[in-house]
Amino acid sequence: MPPSADDILHFARFILRTNYEGSLALAERASAVRFIRDGKTGRLIAPVEGWMLQQDSGTLVIEQEGSDALELLVELVEVSADAEAACDRWLAHHESSAQRKWCAMTIGGARLGRQVLDPEDITPINPVHDQEPRLCKLANADRTAFRLGCERAWTKELPESLCVGVDPTGFDIRTRVGMTRLEFGAVGMGLALVPEGLQRGAEDIAEIIDAILGLGQDKDA
After folding, report:
1. Which position among 10, 21, 115, 149 has the lowest Cβ density within 10 Å, counted as fewest Cβ atoms?
2. Ramachandran region of residue 45, left (φ > 0), alpha (ψ -120 to 50) or beta?
C-alpha cells in the first residue's frame, strides 16, 4: 500500500527536523548551506555567500538517506546578525562560519517525491519557542548526566554534547562531531513521552529532561 498524504507530510516534517544542511540552488548555481529552524517565525536561517543574496528565491534541497530528497521553494531576504537573535542560535548550533552574510528563508512551497506539500503545513513553528532557552538551560545544568542519559535512552554516542534546541518532538544536540537530532518518538526507555507530538507542552518536556538526567545519574543503569 502506498503511503498516504498524511504519512508523506509527517515524513517531510521529520526530514526538516532532523537535518541541518542542504544544497541551495539559485538560478544556475548551487551551494551547500547549513541552516537552523527559527521556531518563532518558521523561517530557516543560514549564513550564505554574497552572490546568493542577489536572488530573491531558490530551491533548498535536503537529502535523506533511503528516501527522495525534500525540495523547498524558498524566498530569501538578508538579515542582520546584530538584529536577528536567530543568528546567535545558528552559532550555538554550528559554532562558526566563513560567511559574513546572513539570510532568512521563508518556505513558499515544498515537494517530497511526487507529493506537493502545503508550505503552511511544513513551516517549522515551535510552540514552545519562548521556553526554549529555559529548557536548554535545564538540560545543560548537568551536561555529563544529560549526555549519559541521552546515550542510554537513544543508544548512541554523543561526545561532548550540548543541548542547543528543544521542541515538542525532540532535542537538537551539538556534539564534537557535529549536529544530531534526538527524536522523542525514537526512545525505547519508557520515559514520560505523553501527551504526544505537538500536544506536548514545555512542562511535559521539562519532565522528560528530568527523567533523562535521572537516567544519567543512575549508576546502576
Report:
1. 10
2. beta
Tens-place pLDDT, residues 164-179: 999 999 999 999 999 9
* d(C-alpha 62, C-alpha 39), whole Å: 18
CB atoms within 10 A of CB 113: 14
Query: Which residues, in sequence order, are CB contacts of 169 under 8 Å at separation 6+?
Result: 17, 183, 184, 185, 197, 198, 200
- 30/61 Cα distance (integer angstroms): 10
| Structural domains for the chain | 5-122 (2.30.110.10), 129-217 (3.20.180.10)
- With a threshold of 0.70, does the pTM exceed it? yes
| Nearest-angstrom CA–CA distance, 212 and 146 | 6
